[in-house]
From TrEMBL:
Sorted UniProt keywords: Membrane, Transmembrane, Transmembrane helix
Subcellular location: Cell membrane
Keyword presence, Nucleotide-binding: no
Transmembrane recorded as keyword: yes
Superkingdom classification of source: Bacteria
Name under which the protein is recorded: MFS transporter
Species this protein is from: Sinomonas flava
Residue ranges of every copy of the Major facilitator superfamily (MFS) profile domain listed in the record: 17-425
Topology with respect to the bilayer: Multi-pass membrane protein
Chief location: membrane
Spans through the membrane: 17-42, 54-75, 82-101, 107-129, 141-164, 170-191, 247-271, 283-304, 311-329, 335-358, 370-390, 396-421
InterPro entries cross-referenced by the UniProt entry: MFS_dom, MFS_sugar_transport-like, MFS_Sugar_Transporters, MFS_trans_sf, Sugar_transporter_CS
Similarity-based family: Belongs to the major facilitator superfamily. Sugar transporter (TC 2.A.1.1) family.
């Protein structure tokens, strides 16, 4: 069988598609981060209670939970191309509308809708990117996807701090997400539909047209590797071998982001509890954010060289040990504390990029978007719960116990990965999604991954 599509060189089309697709996580990081700065002005102006502040802050996360699942289902049913732009048009409109709200209720509603649009974009964009990208570049490009979250967060803090100097600056802050959103929408226009999805829908002539346009006039569906295994609907996932894969992805994803979201959301409070106070705590939080980004970039470099399975296991192991060190020695020298915190931020990068690599590789085209969306939604439950419990744990259990619990959650991700993580490096999407192909290779890797 021809491998002209999966062995194709990385073209300008692939690079542009990767850039346009990464707009979703950029906007996620921007939107979730800038609300923290805006709340400095919103809280006194609207006289928000503690519960109202929590709802304003959490509304986008709740929207992402629902949007990721529904967006995944919609992209499998109606295609990737249409929703690739429609979801962000909704985001732009709701972002602008935030500048005109007069009370907390409408702000919460709009934040919910914005989160919905951001959540929907994840399965849409990653499915499209995975289905066009050559095998050699699929891991790095999907992995690089997550790094844009931290770029978006950094830009949001810069913009927020600047606009904070103006009266009612919070209105401009929240509306400002429309600017990158509109740019991304315009860039995405004209992106072709996935030929794999078109083929699954029986639209072979359209699929051939897309393949000829992207890969050359002589490339047809005959050059597109078939996907192994029979067609499976989303409802059948739990009754087939794919149910085990869904459980693996949901558990490892949850174990990865529960401690990370907690550390990111409450970084200054955690560092102050570890005896780093004042400016040192804020500078430490900024430095850790940079380390998160660097960790993801290092993992992108290693995902093909090291392999998916070794990368995720080692990432969980060493990041978990760094958290364990913080839990066992909470009164250590400030420099030691910062080193351990930075080590965690750097080493957890492997699990972060695999949140987007594995889900897109381990499921067939007809349910890829739905599976990514469902796993993303389920993992957000644990992330929201963990984030909510952090301040309670800090006050009730103390910093040492809190960090030990975070270490246990992280190391649980390692155990699950040792048991279930397959190796999909170098495989076509069809080979990776086929139950009888991907699992044995992962099993063979299991005995040597930690050697």
């Amino acid at each position: 069988m021809s491998h002209v599509v999966d062995d194709a060189p990385l073209s300008s089309f692939h690079k542009k598609l990767a850039l346009y697709s990464s707009g979703g996580p950029f906007l996620d990081g921007y939107i979730l981060s800038i609300i923290g700065v805006a709340m400095i002005q919103i809280t006194p102006q609207f006289r928000l209670s503690a519960s109202e502040q929590g709802l304003v802050g959490a509304a986008a996360l709740i929207g992402i939970f629902f949007g990721a699942f529904l967006g995944g289902w919609l992209t499998d049913k109606f295609g990737r191309h249409l929703l690739f732009t429609v979801d962000l048009i909704a985001l732009v409109a709701c972002s602008i509308a935030q500048a005109f709200v007069g009370d907390a209720v409408w702000l919460i509603v709009l934040r919910l809708l914005i989160g919905f649009a951001v959540g929907a974009d994840y399965p849409i964009a990653t499915s499209l990117l995975a289905e066009f990208t050559p095998s050699k570049w699929r891991g790095p490009l999907l992995g690089a996807f997550v790094t844009m979250w931290f770029v978006g967060a950094a830009v949001a803090y810069i913009v927020g701090q600047f606009l904070l100097t103006f009266a009612d600056g919070w209105r401009w802050m929240l509306a400002s997400a429309a600017i990158p959103g509109l740019i991304i929408v315009l860039l995405r226009m004209g992106t072709p539909e996935s030929p794999r999805w078109l083929a699954k829908m029986g639209r072979h002539e359209e699929a051939n047209e897309v393949l000829a346009k992207v890969y050359g006039p002589h490339v047809t569906l005959a050059d597109l590797p078939e996907e192994g295994g029979a067609n499976v609907g989303l409802g059948e996932l739990v009754r087939s071998g794919y149910g085990k894969r869904m459980a693996f992805i949901t558990i490892f994803w949850t174990c990865s982001i529960v401690p990370l979201f907690a550390v990111y959301a409450f970084g200054p409070a955690i560092l102050e509890a570890l005896n780093l106070s004042g400016d040192l705590a804020h500078l430490g939080s900024a430095a850790i954010t940079v380390m998160f980004l660097i960790g993801c970039l290092v993992a992108v470099f290693l995902v093909n060289r090291m392999g998916r399975r070794p990368l995720i296991i080692h990432s969980f192991l060493w990041a978990g040990l760094a958290l364990l060190g913080l839990g066992l020695f909470p009164s250590a020298d400030p420099m030691v504390i910062m080193i351990l915190f930075a080590a965690y931020a750097l080493l957890i990068g492997g699990t972060q990029i695999m949140q987007w690599v594995y889900p897109n590789e381990l499921f067939p085209t007809e349910v890829r978007g739905s599976a990514v969306g469902l796993a993303s939604s389920l993992s957000r439950i644990g992330a929201a719960t963990g984030t909510y419990l952090v301040p309670l744990a800090l006050s009730g259990l103390g910093i040492g116990t809190t960090m030990i619990i975070a270490a246990i959650i992280t190391l649980l991700g390692m155990v699950v990965s040792i048991a279930w993580a397959p190796e999909t490096r170098g495989m076509t999407l069809g080979q990776a999604a086929a139950l009888e192909t991907a699992a044995p290779k992962g099993t063979r890797s299991r005995n040597r991954v930690l050697s």
